[in-house]
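Hello,

I think I submitted the NAP job twice by accident. Can you confirm which output corresponds to this input? Input:
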Amino acid sequence: MTILGSTGSVGRSALAVIADAGADFDVVGLAAGKNTELLVEQAIRHRPQIVAVQRESDRSAVVERLAAADLADVEVVAGVAGAQAVAAATDADWVLTAMVGAVGLQPTLTAIRRGATVAIANKEPLVMAGALCTAEARRSGATVIPVDSEHSGLFQCIAGSDRGDLQRLVLTCSGGPLRAVADLDRVTVEQALAHPVWSMGKKISIDSATLVNKALEVIEAHWLFGVEGERIEVVIHPEGIVHALVGFRDGALLAQLSAPDMRLPIAYALAHPRRLPLDDSPIDLAALGALSFAAPDLQRFPGLALGHRVLADGGTAGAVLNAANEVAVERFLAGELPYRKIVALIERALDAHRVVPATDLDTILAADSWARAFVRSQLAGC
Ligand SMILES: NC(=O)c1ccc[n+]([C@@H]2O[C@H](COP(=O)([O-])OP(=O)(O)OC[C@H]3O[C@@H](n4cnc5c(N)ncnc54)[C@H](OP(=O)(O)O)[C@@H]3O)[C@@H](O)[C@H]2O)c1
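Support: Only one job matched these inputs. Its output is below.
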């Protein structure tokens, strides 16, 4: 197996899964960003053939540290091309994409194009380039398996059913850290990062506070399961126990329940169609007592509506949504943009963009660059 984004929240959970499950997996490649300290530790423990760092300037120090640990034969590469080289390592049958953001697009495409089993946590490439990724998977025969907990839940509920019987997909949403916060005009970075259910990287935590994460997931569900936006719903479920539900044409609604812990969807993607033993105590339904569901409040959280809007707009709208969001979230985290302006800027970018078909990488990357420049040009007035 290979893990792109091994030093992140999902990447670390994946390495914990293989350690805890005592499963017999060989780690072929690891790709990280700037946390070279942890990458070297992971390499010493798992002895991959190839590792990638984000910055060329970090490469020689990693080479030296690996040589000192008797791992001089590990290839050390850098940058997006380096992450692509890791994704291309053919000894890995299974590639987990767990980098954050658009930077994962080209490594994800590399893994898909070589026909690997690609477990997708890094949802942004599907949001930007879902049509391209699915077309390339069809061409290469790659198996794409969801890792996002909601999509893993859908995948588990759909297993074994006839696609013609499938009527609707329901994604649950905890509501995020600001669900009960009255004044959304004065949200601090700390408040927005404090997710009540999940412990995750910073970018997805802010996406969860705006509910843009759920919009990205609606688009992700469309591309993963080939279901149009009108049949994808979102319901608020603060307990975070039911991850997704699938409705069938006889009225049956199947749900997937588990503790909010990414190890389960990672393990399911790794072992599918088998299940790995995770040493968790089963959910005690009597102790839980009740599970609650409510309609989302689109007035307070307009970011949630962007998923359906982008699916309706089609083409390069997904790349614009993603890029505008990445820039706005980065500025919010830097304390330079008020919380409410994140979604306002994305909407402005979508309004200003002229959608074109997103069938090739150059067009998608051009839309991404345009949206980043557009949002930056609007920051002064915020
Ligand atoms: N966390 C969750 O529970 C969860 C659940 C479902 C889906 N996801 C999705 O999974 C993806 C990862 O989320 P996360 O929470 O694990 O994020 P994270 O903790 O921030 O980790 C991101 C990973 O990407 C690497 N990275 C960042 N920028 C990079 C760059 N320019 N070049 C190379 N590597 C880079 C980071 O490396 P360094 O740390 O070494 O810099 C790290 O390994 C996201 O797309 C997210 O939406 C996450």
